[in-house]
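Posting this for the archive.
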Amino acid sequence: MHRVAAQSIHPATIDPANPSFGVYVHWPFCAQKCPYCDFNSHVRPVLSGGRGGIDETRFLAAFERELTHTAQLTGPRTVGSIFFGGGTPSLMSAATVAAIIDRISGLWTVDPGAEITLEANPSSVEVDRFRGYRAAGVNRVSLGVQSLRDEQLKRLGRLHSVAEAKKALDIARARFERFTFDLIYARPGQTPAEWAAELAEALAMAGDHLSLYQLTIEPETPFAALHAAGKLVIPDADAALVLYDLTQEMTTAAGLPAYEISNHARPGQGSRHNLLYWRYGEYAGVGPGAHGRLVIDGRRHATVTEKNPERWSSLVEAEGYGFTEVTPLDRHEQADEMLLMGLRLVEGLDLDRLATVGGVRPSEATIDTLVALGMIERLGLRTTSSPVAGIEFGGESDEIPSCLPPGAGRSAEWAEVPRSPAGSNAARLAAAPAIRATGGGRFVLNEIVRQLSASFEPAD
């Protein structure tokens, strides 16, 4: 056995210019499918006579085998983070979680300070497993609370109550070094006053991290059908922006500023695994419907696995893996992905790293246009290495300035670069090595990426 002991997480080891390697494990099962969810999740109820349900032994064997195949593709790596997502990973037994962590640590080197996160639903049955998860090596838990109002939990299709959520948070705080929870806002009919009251309650219970997502209507979900029929009306863009700005103000005042569009944290407490995604690092994705980005023979590949759990298991049993796609990415495709991920971060997208990975830079004219429209902003040179709120390394602004009064929450380490036509393209890029989306820009991020991508010029 290669058991990973429950250890402290050391975010100081993170280098944003050279993200570490991570492993994502997708557990595809839920007790009930939520009407807003488009994740790859499936319900397998136990039928009369004990038929149906989840064959956990079979799935564990498949996870172990697919991990082994993936390690053969990557070669030696040092794992900085492991993330159990879903679905509802807290439906797994602690023994299964421990066995998967053991297999990962036997195939790759696991950083002694690795972050190991497990998503959980706050029902009382699952909370009873927390002690076992901690012993298995999990050192961070993410709870899907979603709302602190019982009537809203019912509308969102959640099985737990507010009381159960609060109990789960208490146990998580006692058992784990780090914990976080999710809330969904911009719900139908939600007013700023209602959200402010609910968010204030959440901030009073929060630890060092909080995820706050605006409700979006995802295609092919029950909410999408209701929305199309006019039976589900969510706040329009202007109302949603008011709620977003309120969220930034309240979280900043509470010491949990945004480090990404929907994620808030105290200094050094951002999700190491999710930062790996947003900084365009390398990660293995195993399990039904998982996606990965692997460097194989020196070239980055996109991997996708079979979505249906039983078909995935059969594929793994027959072939040793459940991949349906292993696609090499050209440099332009990598640059597009870096744009989409990096612009979400408060620290911004490093244009020099974009040039290194993708071989391109957005045109200065397009950047200037988007800046003038208030969709993105330039960030200046880092001058210190002291940590600031919500980020794993020094030198970022701790706020999204467009959401704050002038000068509020501004970090001394970053300075905006004046928009001036003077100077060469190279000189201006040297002065402004990063860009990021503003609060308003986050609502049209795909269009921002499209325009920047269309303007790509070969890097000097």
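The chain has two domains: 11-278, 349-458. The chain is about 35% helix and 20% strand.
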